[in-house]
């Protein structure tokens, strides 16, 4: 799949979901269990993305490198209620700094 | 209620709602820079990055798509992850369609603007006229801000060169952690996150890149369908945003 195909498919799927909310009867998704699953879906995906982006190397093997240190700093800042942009910039700085020192 | 719904908003109320919309638009627009930079760091070009902000227009899904592609995942895995993250927008549409009562072209436009912020500001207003104004003005403010700042981030990111040198790969992980953090309020959410993390970790050496994230979505099913699960309480956050909403569009 080319990058453009991927981009446009994702855009079409996202819009279809948004529009479905306007076209489908509400009772289809208002049962408690399905709304619970929908609420937990982003939690599962984001947790998996954090793990993969931090601990998995290009070939699928698990590694501990500068990214793990950067995530540690990000988590501390999140616990301190730092702003989104501060968290993201700090993580980039930590990883870049460690790599400049020759680690990870 | 219907008489109240037909009543026009006072000039002062209109100003208040518009100001709220603009502040939300300005705040989320700033995150657009991160997305633009991370997207070009993941190998997309400026046009593809901009197409995502214009057409997909849902921050978490956009970040996930470029994250999976940047990690070497397949297009199918990237689309699946992005789409699963966008399911909640469909639920928002169920709420906003009742407020807006739109038909035809206006309904198509309303659907595109249905995101965390427009829904939160819209349903957060007490009177129907303000709900409609809140939804539309917030949706438009975020759309304009998010797209302009995406362009800025993509152009700057493109000029930087090797993304690893600037730690942009680590910034992506931090961005996902920042989106996850406010969602971890209930025991169910924490259990889901831990389970999904383990699934992704164990599956990564065995499956092609991108697939472990899609597989980890099953954690939401396992925890959500469990009998006697603790239901998440009503939204109680300080700023009145939706439960589990992102700080991104």
Structural commentary:
The complex is a heterodimer of chains A (104) and B (249). Chain A is mostly helical and 104 residues long. Chain A is elongated, with a radius of gyration of 19 Å. Chain A has 2 domains: 1-30; 32-101, no CATH class. Chain A has 4 helices and no strands. The mean pLDDT of chain A is 90. In chain A, α3 (66-79) packs antiparallel against α4 (84-100). Helices cover 73% and strands 0% of the residues of chain A. The two termini of chain A are 32 Å apart. The longest helix of chain A has 24 residues, at 32-55. Chain B has one domain (11-225). Chain B is mainly α and 249 residues long. Chain B has 13 helices and no strands. In chain B, α4 (59-70) packs antiparallel against α10 (168-180) and α11 (187-203) runs antiparallel to α13 (218-225). Chains A and B meet through α1, α2, α3 and α4 of A and α2, α3, α4, α5 and α6 of B. Chain A: It holds the Pfam family AzlD. Chain A: Keywords: Membrane, Transmembrane, Transmembrane helix. Chain A: InterPro entries: Brnchd-chn_aa_trnsp_AzlD.
Q: What's the SSE pattern of chain A?
A: HHHH
Care to count the β-strands of chain B? 0
Q: Helical element count of chain B?
A: 13
How far apart the termini of chain B lie comes to: 31 Å
Tell me the span between the first and last alpha carbons of chain A.
Answer: 32 Å
Q: What ranges of chain A have pLDDT less than 50 throughout 5 or more consecutive residues?
A: none
Q: What is the beta-strand fraction of chain B?
A: under 5%
| Proportion of residues in helical segments of chain B | over 70%
Class by helix and strand content of chain B?
Answer: mainly alpha
How many discrete domains of chain A? 2
Tally of discrete structural domains of chain B: 1
Give the radius of gyration of chain A: 19 Å
Low-confidence segments of chain B, given as residue ranges, are 1-5, 232-241
Helical stretch count of chain A?
4
Subcellular location (chain B): Cell membrane
GO cellular component, one term (chain B): plasma membrane
Transmembrane segments (chain B): 21-44, 64-87, 140-160
Keywords (chain B): Cell membrane, Membrane, Transmembrane, Transmembrane helix, Transport
């Amino acid at each position: 799949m080319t990058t453009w195909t991927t981009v446009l498919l994702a855009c079409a799927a996202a819009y279809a979901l948004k529009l479905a909310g306007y076209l489908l009867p509400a009772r289809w998704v208002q049962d408690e269990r399905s709304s619970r699953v929908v609420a937990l879906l982003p939690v599962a995906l984001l947790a998996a993305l954090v793990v993969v982006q931090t601990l998995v190397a290009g070939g699928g093997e698990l590694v501990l490198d500068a990214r793990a240190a950067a995530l540690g700093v990000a988590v501390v800042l999140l616990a301190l209620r730092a702003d989104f942009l501060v968290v993201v910039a700090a993580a980039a700085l930590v990883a870049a700094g460690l790599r400049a020192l020759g680690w990870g | 209620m219907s008489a109240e719904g037909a009543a026009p908003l006072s000039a002062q109320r209109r100003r208040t709602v518009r100001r709220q919309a603009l502040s939300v638009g300005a705040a989320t627009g700033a995150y657009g820079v991160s997305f633009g930079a991370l997207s070009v760091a993941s190998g997309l070009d400026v046009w593809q990055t901009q197409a995502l902000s214009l057409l997909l227009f849902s921050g978490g899904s956009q970040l996930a798509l470029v994250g999976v592609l940047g990690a070497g995942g397949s297009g199918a895995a990237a689309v699946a992850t992005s789409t699963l993250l966008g399911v909640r927008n469909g639920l928002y549409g169920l709420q906003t369609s009742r407020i807006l009562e739109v038909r035809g072209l206006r309904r198509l436009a309303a659907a595109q603007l249905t995101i965390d912020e427009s829904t939160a500001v819209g349903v957060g207003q007490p009177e129907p006229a303000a709900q409609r104004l809140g939804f539309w003005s917030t949706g438009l403010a975020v759309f304009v801000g998010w797209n302009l700042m995406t362009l800025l981030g993509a152009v700057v990111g493109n000029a930087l060169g090797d993304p690893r040198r600037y730690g942009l790969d680590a910034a992506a992980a931090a961005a996902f952690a920042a989106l996850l953090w406010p969602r971890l309020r209930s025991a169910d959410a924490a259990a889901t996150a831990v389970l999904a993390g383990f699934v992704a970790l164990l599956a990564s050496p065995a499956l092609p890149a991108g697939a472990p994230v899609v597989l980890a979505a099953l954690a939401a099913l396992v925890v959500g369908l469990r009998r006697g699960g603790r239901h998440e309480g009503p939204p109680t956050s300080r700023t009145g945003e939706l439960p589990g909403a992102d700080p991104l569009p």
